[in-house]
Amino acid sequence: MSPDSTGHSVRLCHLYPDLMNIYADRGNIAVFERRLAWRGIGLEITEVSIGDELSGDFDLYYLGGGQDRDQDLVADDLQTKAAHMRAAADDGAAQLYVCGGIQLAGHGYVASNGDRLPGTGVLDLETTAGESRLIGDLVIDAHLPTEMAAGETRQIVGYENHAGRTSLGSGCQPLGRVVNGHGNDGASGFEGACRDRVIGTYLHGPLLPKNPWLADVVLGWALAHRYGDTAVELEPIDDSMEQRAHAAAVARANRDR
Amino acid sequence: MLKLASLVALGAGWLSRRLGRGGGTTLPGVVLLRLRPNAIAEFAARLPHGAILISATNGKTTTTRLVVAAAEALGLRVVTNAEGSNLERGVAAALLHGARGGDGGAPDIAILEVDEAALPAVARAVQPRALVLMNLFRDQLDRYGELDTLVDIWRELLDSAAVSESCSLVLNADDPNLADLGRDRSNVVWFGVDDVSHALDARAHAADATSCRRCGHPIEHDIVLLGHLGHWHCTNGDAARPVPSVTATAAALRSDGQTVTVAIDGSPIEIDSSLAGLHNTYNVTAAMAAAQVMPTIHGHRAAVAQAIGATGAAFGRGERIAIDGRKLNLLLAKNPTGVNQNIRTVLAEDGQVHVLAVLNDRTADGRDVSWIWDVDWEPLEGRLASLTLAGDRAWDLALRFRYAGFDMDTVQVKPDVAGALDAAVAATDPDSTLHVLPTYTAMLDVRSELARRGHVSEYWDES
Ligand SMILES: [Zn+2]
Fold this sequence. Notes:
The complex is a heterodimer of chains A (257) and B (463). Chain A has 257 residues and is of the alpha/beta class. Chain A contains 7 helices and 12 strands. In chain A, 29% of the residues lie in helices and 30% in strands. In chain A, strand 5 and strand 6 form a beta hairpin. Chain A starts with 8 loop residues before the first strand and ends with a helix. The mean pLDDT of chain A is 93. By secondary structure, chain B is α/β, with parallel strands linked by helices. Chain B has 2 domains: 293 residues, 3-Layer(aba) Sandwich (UDP-N-acetylmuramoyl-L-alanine:D-glutamate ligase); 136 residues, Protein-Tyrosine Phosphatase, Chain A, CATH 3.90.190. Chain B has 15 helices and 17 strands. A 9-stranded mixed sheet of chain B has the order 2-3-1-4-5-6-9-10-11, sandwiched between helices. In chain B, a hairpin with a 2-residue loop joins strand 9 and strand 10. In chain B, helix 3 packs across helix 5 and helix 4 packs across helix 11. Chain B is globular and about 65 Å long. In chain B, 54% of the residues are buried. Chains A and B meet through helix 1, helix 2, strand 7 and helix 7 of A and helix 13 of B. The complex binds zinc ion (ZN). The site of zinc ion (ZN) has 8 residues of chain B, from loops. Zinc ion binds next to loops of chain B.
């Protein structure tokens, strides 16, 4: 099927692809693109980086992780885009924040030297640098609230590598519970955060190829934002290869702990 | 007392081998450092010509072999470390064995490959006569942390007393991060590649040094040669590629080797090498640059060049092995830049190519497999006669290819290495080459399977 045979498309805003790309974020974008193309739906990607004006109407926003130095540069610039991001989230656009992204989507990040980087405030959470990095395979039982995705619980798997300890406020819910690994802070048993059509998570590796269910949830939100709820259905895809990779990664995580 | 500690340490290694325990290579180093924490410094102090330390993300094993060959061509007795033992204990074990003398007496000089993160500790102990720093690429983030962190600890090292004014720094001018490390220092020998015919269209996706270390402005490349290596400048005008005094002015690359012209202060010398690929152009050039800081180099450049050219591939790094009428080409890599460069080398072959990629996620490979998404596998599309995927994380590799749009009906996915080897060899036409792209432990798995079948001693052109 050609990517636009249905005449539908998703407008994706990829934030700072040149700086926030350290944990294979390119893989998540590839998953968006292919899973839409297989269903005859197009993906229009707009890359927005430092100094670029963020304007226009997008159905999906993506922000990945970067090195500390790059994340500092991005945090400053993101202040010029924060109001747009909050308005888009309130308006029902889908937003996915991975790794460093979840930290920048919160109220702020207190670095190990005590400096505080401001975030966008899209997610009601706060992050503080810990003494050690939380590293390893990570398996969670993801549970999206009923109003977001029919209250389904699914296992998702990936890798985490972060110094940040993230605590959630009352304005968002965790993405899921940790089965194996550290999650938001290594203590609470929670991983990630969500509200409306916004998800933040420390899971990379990258996140979406081995967790196609989550990819389709996010793509469904993006289509709902553009065309209205249930106007465009996502046809099922043969995900047997994805399931094998998922199972291998989960087995790896369980074996080593 | 160093002598007693040495004897105990050597005995431990002997015993471990006798018991079939393994660890015979580094165990003596562990024991020695336990008994005599200062042993590295004590041994190093006895070397009349000191030590040369070689570090990089990619190419340190091969380059160390080349620099050893150069030193031996100068008549120096060399102590060096076996591939893989590049942490403190491996260095200690190498110096311990070197101190026993062996055939020509005590060593004159140590030439040591050192892990990037272990470099400060080793350098503080040996007080090197030269540091050869070749490149820093994104690699095993779960183990080394961010690239910036490594650059910072190397800078601290260069600013410390461990690196004296008399220590030569042999640095790659084409890597913006290393160029900044050498900035405003007087004791630098810069090397680089000036053959611009190998320029790539763009920086690799996995490029790292994209902003200036001085001012944060973007780094712009006039020429990209390999990853983020190339001819670069800061768009703010406060930094640019230093002019190298040792530089590859021409590299004629073949699928089975290359002829490199290296100019030293403008005078050219030709090197014929069986090492393929532009990454080996860098390795050869780095070795020639390192040779310039050796004692007695004057008047012996031709002999050194000859010795470097005559040195074959290290274990698993372009090593060629015969199997069932096919040629196996082992191309170890464990980070995006390394695999990108290996793919480029494979595609230098004419026509369709056979590839077996093996991905493990054990400690020595890096536990996080994210990096395979930063590899540019896409140039292989349309050029594959066969593709087999194997290893602990074969299915992750399969997804990488599936989402890149490859036709997965023609791809064999076989996690088990023995089965994958059978399938890949069966898919490879007789007399053709099967290029194997393994991570570190995957390379060991492939090699031990080959040894089990009795193939591993059959080198094709190991010289
Ligand atoms: Zn600059």
